[in-house]
Design brief:
about 650 residues, alpha/beta, Rossmann fold, GMP Synthetase, Chain A, domain 3, about 30% helix, about 25% strand, binds 5'-O-[(S)-butoxy(hydroxy)phosphoryl]adenosine
């Protein structure tokens, strides 16, 4: 039996039991056998969920890029590491071998050094899905700089918030980004974001779209000439196990995004271990995860997990609908993809289109299908299973979070029997518990409660950048001595987990985690608005869509409401990004509040669903008349 690679259900249970009974032995064996260390650890684990303080592999020294790149140069130098598929299907795909990746990462790392980046400095990366994105990430890791990747769909304001919070002195971006038949002016967005940020003294620019841009003297530099001049040898900086590897922002239920900090050794071990088991990667496989590297899925399962296993990982620059809805399947056929990992929202969008888009292509290379980001509904699951997997490829519904660093609850393909809508069983080392309303652990099966973790795992985030108190308050205060996920879940008769949704003010729209507070803040900045409340409602493609209840200063006056709605969505686009736009808006004279002034979103949710017969307990409602008014003018589509 190998701890590292589980091949059947019996092995899963054996490994799982060991991981729970002897977690330190379990995780030290895996780390010992499958990774390259400059120095071994003195202590596998030290933890205290009250402080909270979590330390894995203390005393160890390593560099993650030696694990993801250098060690493969002995036996996989000419194997494709990154297979880049451009937005335009006419443009040639790039096969970047491990040897070429090593040279390009080292060159980039030398450029960063020559531009003044030191170990521990933060570098903000705002790039489209082009090879330079993965290369920049790895180059930071090579020299111990902390990367902070910001999804290139975020607006200038959202980018500025993240640059300031992380204290990034350098930004790596491109002139523009291709997205379907559009070109997005990325560099212009960066210019806007940093007008008032003095700490940014260097902007490195990749030439991708040949978009005309402004280059500010002394600050902005084209990357290509620097790369040509720099050496392809760069000694890896030796890192301590708990040195930060990256910051990645995720929304929270209050305004500011949370900069989740992931550290080096534990994150490496966990992303690699989960990749190997969830995708059962074999040497000749071509693995494709369609996520953007701007999200954790891309960090763990496009870059670090696959590369640590010597895999071929696909990076796709484009979108599923360009040039038509067959694009994903065209790529599967073209590159003979073996594992395909995507979001339920993409599946729902493609399932709406003609089956001919699928049936045109030979998908017989596929062995394993995956989903991530939100629950997959039964209909989408069957469509995926029947039409893409042809009933032969197991579907892994993987539950995890930015905070968890890697997949936590998921079937292991060919081992765990799957049931649609169930993420099934915890991975080795993961100890989920369900907690009731009084903070009690719910024992036994057929239970539903708050999903918590009672034991640490190597991939978990260690803190929120510059705000350890918020880390404690958000994740370790809801339930004593437990990590609280923010999700609810049920455990069925055989112990399988099904995620039932968020229990806080976070709404998952198209697989993107959106806090209601930052969207409300953006709306409230509009001069016509007093205040607002956002709630989610089911949407056939996005999973959830957003409905805003907005109190106007002068409700009912002659203002053009359609225009106002457009202005509000424009405001959201500017402050956060297009992903946070509202599908429905209802203007109102007030919002339902309880006696302490808290907005009763529960009631708004019911009204949005049209479930006005069951508003629940309204006895604490301060202003019932407002509820009546809102019901009368039920939300109108934007
Ligand atoms: C939240 C985390 C993990 C990478 C992408 C999202 C929801 C995620 C599932 C799933 C049901 C899921 C949860 C979670 N979620 N995967 N398989 N089934 N819900 O990362 O942006 O940090 O969002 O996404 O609500 O808490 P994220």
């Amino acid at each position: 039996m190998s701890n590292y690679h589980i091949k059947n259900l019996e092995e899963y249970w054996q490994v799982y039991r060991k991981s729970i009974n002897e977690p330190e032995i379990f995780w030290s064996e895996i780390a010992e056998e499958h990774f390259l260390w400059r120095k071994k650890w003195d202590k596998v684990l030290e933890w205290d969920f009250d402080k909270p303080s979590i330390k894995w592999y203390q005393g160890a020294e390593l560099n993650i890029t030696e694990n993801c790149i250098d060690r493969h140069l002995f036996n996989r130098a000419d194997k494709t590491a990154i297979l880049f598929e451009p937005n335009n299907p006419q443009e040639k795909a790039q096969h970047i071998t491990y040897k070429q990746l090593s040279e390009r990462v080292n060159k980039m790392a030398n450029v960063l050094k020559s531009q003044g980046v030191n170990k521990g400095d933060r570098v903000c990366i705002y790039l489209p899905m082009i090879p330079e994105l993965a290369i920049s990430v790895l180059a930071c890791a090579r020299i111990g700089a902390i990367h902070s990747v910001v999804f290139a769909g975020f607006s200038a304001d959202a980018l500025a918030t993240r640059i300031k919070d992380s204290g990034s002195k350098m930004i790596i971006t491109s002139d523009g980004a291709y997205r379907g038949n559009k070109t997005i002016e990325l560099k212009k967005i960066v210019d806007e974001a940093i007008v008032d940020i003095d700490i940014v003294n260097k902007v490195l620019v990749v030439n991708r779209t040949k978009t005309k841009i402004n280059m500010k003297n002394g600050r902005d530099i084209w990357l290509a000439p620097l790369l040509i001049k720099s050496s392809d040898i760069c000694e890896a900086t030796i890192m301590k196990a708990e040195d930060p590897l990256f910051i990645l922002y995720t929304s929270g239920s209050t305004g500011k995004p949370k900069g989740m900090v992931h550290t080096t050794a534990g994150y490496m071990v966990y992303s690699a271990y989960t990749f190997k088991n969830i995708f059962q990667y074999q040497e000749k496989d071509v693995y494709w995860c369609t996520a953007d590297i701007g999200w954790i899925t891309g960090h763990s399962y496009i870059i670090y997990g696959p590369l640590a296993n010597g895999a071929t990982t696909v990076m796709f620059e484009g979108i599923p609908s360009y040039p038509d809805y067959g694009r994903f399947w065209e790529i599967v056929e073209k590159h003979k993809i073996t594992q395909f990992y995507t979001a339920p929202t993409a599946i729902r969008a493609l399932a709406k289109e003609k089956l001919d888009y699928v049936n045109r292509y030979d998908l017989s290379s596929l062995k394993i299908l995956g989903t991530v980001g939100e629950p997959i509904n039964e209909e989408a699951w069957h469509w995926y299973n029947d039409n893409i997997g042809k009933g032969k490829s197991p579907i892994v519904d993987t539950w995890w979070q930015t905070e968890t660093g890697g997949i936590m609850i998921s079937p292991i393909p060919f081992s765990t029997p799957t049931i649609p809508t169930y993420a099934t069983l915890p991975l080795p080392g993961i100890q989920p518990v369900l907690v009731g309303n009084d903070g009690e652990e719910l024992q036994g099966n057929n239970k539903e409660g708050k999903l918590c973790m009672k034991f640490p795992w190597p991939g978990m985030a260690r803190t929120i950048w510059d705000n350890h108190k918020r880390f404690k308050d958000t994740y370790f205060s809801e339930v004593k001595n437990m990590y609280f996920t923010g999700d609810g879940a049920l455990r069925n008769a055989v112990g399988y987990y099904r995620i039932t949704g968020r229990t806080d003010d976070v709404i998952i729209v198209s697989g993107h985690n959106l806090g209601t507070a930052p969207i409300e803040d953006a709306i409230n900045e509009h001069p016509a608005v007093v205040e607002s409340a956002i709630v989610g409602f089911p949407h056939s493609i996005k999973g959830n869509a957003l409905c805003g209840y907005i109190t106007l200063k002068q409700y009912g006056e002659s203002r053009d409401h359609d225009n106002l709605k457009a202005e509000i969505n424009q405001m959201i686009t500017e402050r956060i990004g297009g992903i946070a736009k509202l599908d429905q808006i209802q203007f109102t004279v007030g919002l339902p509040k309880n006696r302490s002034g808290k907005i009763m979103r529960r009631i708004l949710r019911k009204i949005t669903l049209g479930d006005i017969e069951n508003l629940g307990d309204t006895s604490t409602l301060l202003n019932p008349e407002v509820v009546e008014l809102i019901i009368e003018g039920r939300a109108v589509k934007v």
